Amino acid sequence: MLIEILTPALSTPEGNLVKTYKSILLGILAFLTLIGPVNAAYAIDLVQPSVTVTGEAKLKIAPDQAVVPVTIVTEGETLAKAKENGDQKLKKITKTAKSYNVKDEDIKSVNNSIQTEYGTSKETSIEVDVYTGVVDFTFNVTDLPRDKTNAFVAEAQKIGFEKIVTKHSGLGTSISASFSVSDENAEIMKGKLKAKENEIFNLATETGLTRDKINSYESLQTGKRSHVSQPARHITKYKATMVVNVAVPAKDIPDFIKKLAAEGIDNIGSITFNLSSEKEYKNQVLVTALKDAAEKAHQLADATGMAVDRVTAITETTAQPIQVQDALPSGTIEIQQTVNATFSLKQK
Fold first, then answer.
1. pLDDT digits over 24-53, tens only?
2. How far is Cα 122 from Cα 32, in angstroms, rounded to an integer?
3. CB 308 within 8 A of CB 48
4. Do residues 64 and 249 touch, judged by C-beta distance below 8 A?
5. Which one-letter DSSP state was computed for residue 82?
6. 344 strand-pairing partners
7. Among 245, 269, 293, which residue terminates a domain?
8. Strand, helix or coil for residue 255
9. Total domain count for the chain?
10. Which residues pair with 237 in a beta bridge?
11. I need a labelling partner for 263 at 20 to 30 A (CA). Which of 194, 209, 234, 275 fits?
């Protein structure tokens, strides 16, 4: 009936065809109108409401463990003797620590070093061959502005050039410079010469001097050899240094240090306090933070007339324990944990 109202004048074959098309079109529109609300409702059902909250928890507790850094310094005429003296002191530290039930894994060597001390003898001397090389340069700076010329001279002096002379003549202005290097090894001396050559060429290029303005240079890399008398050096002693961290019960610190001093060990560093069961405390605080997040989720759900269904995601943020100064000499350790948790909601 609707189609007939829309097309009352179509009685020709062409009109009948148009009428048929319109019937199909209106039928499709009617079908979409019927199913549209159903699909929308179905789409809404697919999106389950949820709430994301942050839970926090803190715990302050007195530290039960202290880490004592002990420095052992020993000397000896030989390296073996210096090490032997250090091992003897380490045994004393270990014995004292174990009297407080300290485990082997709580006694750790964190730093070891060996120093060699030298002396000189006035009675004897040695002859050392010293190789010396000299390089001379002359640069034509006639076309170079005066400020750049002055800058070039200043920089050349900084990198070790000596005898820098500026000459003026009818042919223009030139700068002459030279340097010398010495070493006990001829090959090393030659390497130093080459490095200096590169330095002066780079400086000339940066200043604006191109190679056509560098008149000449000469490298005497064969060098000259001379004898120099030097005092003979010899090793006088070896010094061995070892740093040992000892984890001792916090309550025993005063007595422990007193016993070390009685053994002649008194080089004690800055003492730090911590928890021997830190992981257990962290887990405890983590559970408390999650309970805090769950409580907040229930409060928000109840305020909206819904109920918490289940947790769907948890993200943990862990902060390192920090030492808080208070009335206790060792202070207290504060452990903090934060979690972000997402809970799905349902109708009550």
1. 555 555 554 554 544 433 344 457 899 999
2. 112
3. no
4. yes
5. H
6. 50, 310
7. 269
8. helix
9. 4
10. 117
11. 275
